[in-house]
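Supplementary Note 3. Input sequence used for the single-chain structure prediction.
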Amino acid sequence: MSLTAPVPRPPSPDSSPSSRSAPIPSTHGLRATLVVAVVMLLLIAIPYLLNRSVVGAAPVHLGQVVTLGTFRYHPAPGWQIDRGASQADLVSVLVKGATRYRLTPLGRQSSAASAFKAAARRYEATGRGRVGGDPASVTTARGLTGLVAPISGNTVAGTLTVLVGGGQGLGVSLTARHTAPLTEAIADDVVTMLDSVEVVES
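The predicted structure, written as discrete structure tokens, is reproduced below.
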């Protein structure tokens, strides 16, 4: 018994790939729309979620007090303490959305002017921006005096403030991304936090 393999027929002219088009599934347009919608949602949601929280951050508790060398202050509720950037007695960093509030003791300072120069050098050494303009005088509700000037950078803007008390200086930087400028509520929180700064009695 012999087996003969069927001989394949040559394709007809009308069945060539170039002469016919495959039917487009009816769900193709819907899938494309869904993909675009998901991508747009991610582009919006991811920066928003990153702005809302910081990895390793802890919420501020009502009545919480932070001590920094010879100074202490009350963080505002609704902010988060960046535990990765904060160090006991050395630096306190708070975040709220795209806003960053950083307090650093400057050691012994003879005047607000010398404290401001030291704080400006420290900030500009980070490469995040420059301190510009003539500093203006500032006095807190607790009687601490100091200076404040604007910060400008490629991606952020804000202010640098120094306070002096008990022969010691404290540098305070406030920065926010250009894409998410400071709100009035955040500005009010910052004023309240600055007014809460006091010298720890020895």
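The helical segments are 28-52, 112-125, 184-196. Residues 28-52 form the longest helix (25 residues).
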